[in-house]
Amino acid sequence: MYIKIPKAEYEERSRRVLKLMEEKDLDGLVVYFNEYYRENGRYLSNYWPQVESGAVIMVRSGRKILAGGPEGQPYAREMSVIPDIRNVPEFMVEGEEYPGARIETLKEIFNEISGGRFRNVGIVGYTEMPVSVYHCMEKDLLGKKIVNVTRDFEKLRHVKSPLELELLAECARIADKGMAALLGAIEAGQPEYIAAAAADCAIRNAGAEGYGWSTMLMAGERAASVLGRATDRLFRKGELVMCSVSPLYQGYAGALGRMAVVGGRFSAEQKEAMDVMLGAYERAIDKLGPGVRGKDVDLAARNYLKKYGFGKYMLYGGAHSIGLREFEQPFFGPNSEYAIQPGMVVAIDIHAYGHPEFPGLRLEEVFAVTEDGKRQLSSCPRLS
After folding, report:
1. Helices H, strands E: what count in the chain?
2. Domain total in the chain
3. Which residues make Cβ contacts (< 8 Å) with residue 62, sequence separation at least 6?
4. What is the pTM of this model?
């Protein structure tokens, strides 16, 4: 299955960004992105850089330029819905020479597309932008006011369009395939990376362009590492394995977390712990819906875990938004007053890390919030 994002979707996104610029009285906008922090730039351009970084530059007339480096320019021409692509020194590989390339400064680009008439310039990606790039902007935009509007911009992405919901549903379908392959490859005496490779292969074969993050697969005591990767550690019969996959499809990320046991059968103690986790997980899912505060989703699970002595091992918020990044704003922790809206896509992520008998336990999957409830996107069994 292949879902192409039409030009009209990007035009609607640009209209929303221009409205934000008007509200903030911005004459220009610089949306910085790179290979890892890709989401905001890809939202407007569809381009996902490798090695080099880049920016989408916009002015109030609606004109846009994709700025990057010359090595990535051919790929940018292939991917980008913005046809005007320029090379800027700050986004190039430092020290590498490109004698045949035309290189322009941010000042030259802004003067060209604004006719020299700009006062206030917004930045998206302020916390990810290298200091060197920011200082270059200050120099090139001497005397102009630079405003960080990252969070305001990202709010435009909180509620998904119907097409984005389709894309995220496809991510969930791919994640199901990856998890099934991973669980089927767990075998005593085999290294963790063999099972992770099975997931990665299934995910790419199902149509993914990459991964929201590296497949997480940690067995036994390693499950306490929270964000660990698979290693050459050998699976041992009877131990718990924490498994989590995140396919990337057309820029959108999936998330699916499950627990397994080497040998396929939980012990009585493991089953008891997993029943507690499942009870907390299902309470968070039951609470999720339009108008519900984020903290109510989190606390539904957290308070249940406390009853069974697992509460202190739930280290972070139990839910978060998901879209062009696997975990993105808003996050729903025990203090979140954010009212969840229809059209949002939320990952429920209930976990316990650091328990003396069960080092790492986690269940995660994705739901689309509807006008009257939610829709589960994954079909993967919660306990095998």
Report:
1. 10, 17
2. 2
3. 14, 18
4. 0.94
